[in-house]
Amino acid sequence: MTKVVLAGVQRESSQEVLRHAVRACAEAATDFSWLSRGDSVFVKPALNSGRRYPATTSPTAIGVVVELLKEKGAGRVVVGDMSGIEHVKLTTSGIADNRYSRQLMVDCGMAGAAEQAGGELHFFDEHGWDAFYEELPVSGSHWKGPIMMPNILKTMDHIVLMPRCGRHALAGNTLGLKAAVGYWRTDTRFEYHHDAETFHEKTAEGNNVPTIRDKQRLVISAADKILATYGPDKGCVIEPLTGLVIASQSTVAHDMVSLAWLLLARKDTPAWEKSFIKDPHAIALVVNYANRYIAGRLGGYCEIFGCQALQRNDTGKVKEDRALKHAFQLLGEAPTINFEVAHGTVPDTLIQSLHDRL
């Protein structure tokens, strides 16, 4: 049994209620015995753009987790990421178009929340092409080259992952596993999008490199708001009557529940919001050509012609999601989820609905 902790947040609750929910969820998901006084912790959010939560990680949640880590004895708490290719492009000679992740984190509100709570900020693009090291995927991986990870992770004792719950126009969803892309250098992102036949399998394998396996301790998402269509930067925002905070020490278990939550939100999304114009992942041809465009942005537009086709990953069942299916293979089996409610009220009917989609 793998524990996934839920906290209930009623619609239109104050930010203070959300703060209490995030804190309770984190403390129920782990006893923090892994954290010794003075240890350093890297907090990895989802900073794909400068848009506000739920297109990016909740600033409120970021602030709470930084505060909590400090209270538990952490020394340095560093919050950092590198944004998506639509907004930031790191090249061998520097940053293209003078567009930086730092400004996007300011725009979405995370930077202020992290610093006010006592955290530091770190952006991989500001440190240049050579500030990355090679991580080798597991044997039999679909990756041809190494995965280039940011040097700062070698100096940090622990990692806490803080994704959001949302739709993704190419991947189908963007949860914890997909958030690993933010670590990767441009050449790794290029292989990911160019060799697209195994895009989803590489998502799972990118979370199975030694640094993440050895250092990641907690995955926690504020999900009282869900980006139910389009994604990752824009779409229809759903605010359920009872929102959730979701936490686990297992990324795979977290994502199983987070995807079930996304599927429930999509069930309640108006049909016109899920139309082709509002939700282009519904059309396989659009997914394929949009991915070719991204590969061209990453590696040069001549690469569009050699790019493999990306297949839609759109399913109504959690265990049919391609990234999760491959993650189950890497683990040896799919986790059996044991729900625990840490804060507020989560109706039994909601927990049963989540169970039904696992």
Overview of this structure, please?
The protein is α/β, with parallel strands linked by helices and 358 residues long. The protein has a single domain, classed as Rossmann fold (3-Layer(aba) Sandwich), CATH 3.40.50.11440. It has twelve helices and 16 strands. The strands form five sheets. It has an eight-stranded mixed sheet with strand order 6-3-2-9-12-15-1-16, sandwiched between helices. A two-stranded antiparallel sheet has the order 4-5. A two-stranded antiparallel sheet has the order 7-8. Helix 6 runs antiparallel to helix 10. The two termini are 14 Å apart. The mean pLDDT is 96.
CATH architecture annotation: 3-Layer(aba) Sandwich
Euclidean distance between termini CA atoms: 14 Å
What's the SSE pattern? EHEHEEEHHEEEHEEEHHHEEEEHHHEH
CATH class: Alpha Beta
CATH fold title:
Rossmann fold
**Overall structural domain count:** 1
Structural class assignment: alpha/beta
Taken from the alpha-carbon principal axes, the silhouette is globular
Strand segment tally: 16
Q: Which terms would index this structure?
A:
single chain; alpha/beta; Rossmann fold; 12 helices; 34% helix; globular
Write a compact overview of the structure shown.
The protein has 358 residues and is α/β, with parallel strands linked by helices. The protein is 34% helix and 20% strand.
